[in-house]
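Hi team,

As requested, here is the filled-out complex form for the S-adenosylmethionine run. I kept the field names the same as last time so the parser does not choke. Let me know if anything looks off before we queue the next batch.

— J.
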Amino acid sequence: MNFSDIINRLKLNRDLPDGELKFLISSDEANEQLALAADEIRRANYGEDVYIRGLIEFSNYCKNNCYYCGIRCGNTKAVRYRLTKADIMECCAQGYSLGFRTFVLQGGEDPHFTDEVMCDIIAEIRQNYPDCAITLSVGERSRESYQAYFNAGANRFLLRHETATDDHYRRLHPKNLSLQNRKQCLFDLKEIGFQVGSGFMVGSPYQSDDNLLADLRFLQTLQPDMIGIGPFIRHEDTPFATFDSGDLYKTLRLVSILRLMFPYALIPSTTALGTIHPQGREMGLRAGANVVMPNLSPKRVRELYMLYDNKISTDEEAAESVDKLKKKVVSAGYRVVTARGDVKKEN
Ligand code: SAM
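And here is what came back:
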């Protein structure tokens, strides 16, 4: 098959038949041409702009036991922490002064953060920073809870579907978690009015290219505003400790395919990409990503939010090094902007 022809049709139609999409997913040789096409589409929609999000990892307690994740409840070696409301407000104040206009509150599914506690935090951030977006990434909750967070002032929600194939989902998660519920959460969040982000890991254990194709098809149904993907990276204290980590180049290829299928999407160049390769962040931007999410959490807890081995938390990952990050982004051919960076969707 001829790459140029297939990639041109993907660029034009934002879609391809299953066979051709799978061919691109599996072809290492397609990377360069895919990245060039993705960059063209990204510049047409967002110019050179790269949006920055201040990530606040506010708790590593989690009631779930996902087999891949370092903060799973079954990992007794994890040293647990949770931030107070005052800690979180301090992170926001520091972030605001550094130029961040989006705060992302991410955490394990920590029962301490009841709806009341969450709404109190969200409302205070909303009151103090009316010009900022508040993004939540707190996992699966009831529709009523999501509605309460939205009413309190949250605007966006990140919930990766992880894999859109039922039996693959069951191999990555214990029985009490279901793909059906995760998908329902995503559709609920959308209906409520959140800007919604979803996504998946690349190279997670037992993943096939058919699974990745199903992920792309699911995203076409969901039409998310944000799409976060990154390589699976093993964690030594999980049941998946001996599995290989996901492939850098396959992840980059999928970033480019996503950019071509979802030209409007906000796509982060993820910490996981930066962890598996020293230039992973820049490579992700050049492959079509347009968001970076440095860490605003207090330094004392950064090394404790260890989702996978060697997760990076210094240099460009650290919000206080935003100048270094800006230089890196410029060296990749783009520029960091101080803006909320809402989705530019046509519909
Ligand atoms: N609890 C929330 C949730 O379930 O969406 C947010 C926190 S969760 C730790 C954030 C994301 O980390 C997950 O969606 C998953 O894709 C990613 N993650 C967890 N373990 C990982 C690993 N070993 N390698 C790469 N990504 C991982």
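Two things worth flagging: The CA atoms of residues 141 and 185 lie 7 Å apart. DSSP finds 14 helices and nine strands in the chain.

Thanks,
J.
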